[in-house]
Amino acid sequence: MKRKILLSLALLASMSVSTAMAQHIHAERNHEMPGDAAVSQISEISTGPHGGSLKQSETIQLETVVSQSGIEVFVFDLDGQPVAVDGGRGAASLRVEGNAKRYRYDLLPDGKGGLIAPVDLSEIAGLQIEIQIQLVGLHAVGSRAVRLNEVATVPIGALQLASAAITRQKICPVTGKPLGSMGDPVAVDVNDQRVFVCCAGCVGALESEPAKYVGGRPQIKIETATAADVDAIERQQVCPVMDEPLGGMGTPVKVLIGDKPIFLCCRGCIKKLEAEPAKYLAMIQGTRSVSMDDADSGSVPAGTEQVRAGVFRITAADEPFVAAQKQCPVMNEPLDAMGGPYKVHAGGKAIYICCPGCAKKIIAEPQKWLAELARQGVDAPRLR
Length: 384
Fold this sequence. Notes:
Elements: E1 3-5, H1 17-24, E2 39-40, E3 43-47, E4 53-56, E5 60-67, E6 70-77, E7 89-96, E8 102-109, E9 114-118, E10 128-136, E11 145-153, H2 158-169, E12 186-190, E13 193-197, H3 203-208, H4 210-213, E14 220-224, H5 230-236, E15 253-257, E16 260-264, H6 270-275, H7 277-289, H8 292-297, E17 299-300, E18 306-308, E19 311-313, H9 319-325, E20 342-346, E21 349-353, H10 359-364, H11 366-375, E22 382-383
Helix pairs in contact: 7-9
Keywords: Signal
Signal peptide: 1-22
Protein name: Archaeal TRASH domain protein
């Protein structure tokens, strides 16, 4: 059994493919390849020495390697020996699945035996791309142009895989706290399965009782509140599911998410809590972290960790308001659907969004989006 503490995890800001390509891939080029001389036809697929797709023509072999940093092409003779490409050049035209637009890039010698089109493909990691490659100036084929079509998937990096796994798991199976609420989550490998916990202090519990926690979700126990819970019920005050006063529908129901208690107004709320324990736990923890004066005034801090101008990462004080807003007003998606939620300043108030890309519209027309939230019955908190 081994464990690894992740030092940093980038939230994936997954915008639409067209937006990601526009922001992170160089502008489309319009270079045309000279001379439609006889084309060397490519066939037979295998794996090349650099791990890419290797295809063979009558006289050469071409290996195409796709990474998050671009597209590389290596040329070999039929015996598998590298062919010099110093005098060669080409172009790669790519299209991303779900996007009709094509993006064209020069392939130029990299000085290391290959032709490269350096382009940032990290924003489309995990997506399939169709590539059309055309090469000229290769001594091995004389005056002929070489063309091939390739289909590949942009590889996903280790941090992106970890971030996606944390997003899916959401909560620590030991404490029931949201992953990330105690700093960078800790990855623990148990019986060939990776499970994330909120902090190093939870590792021992997971290792000592792996069968109990290996599912990645905390154990949920239903109990009846007793006299010993009176103080906790008074502090919580309302049911997070129905937003009704505790005690208004009889004796509150006590639910333990890991070791964290939540009180519900009735047993009818249990199913919703079991379906989204992280959501309701965050609501309760957020409420506890905000002073009563702040909660009554409906205000939140402006924010300290700025992602871009006017856009901030949320804090515990924002959690109750995030839970109340639920959806991004721009994309009409859940606030955690694209790496969020984030907080954007809008006319002295806070609007929560699913990704930083939505901030531009809100900053341009803050009153429009505040009115949209009001139409949905959401009162945006004031900034302080």
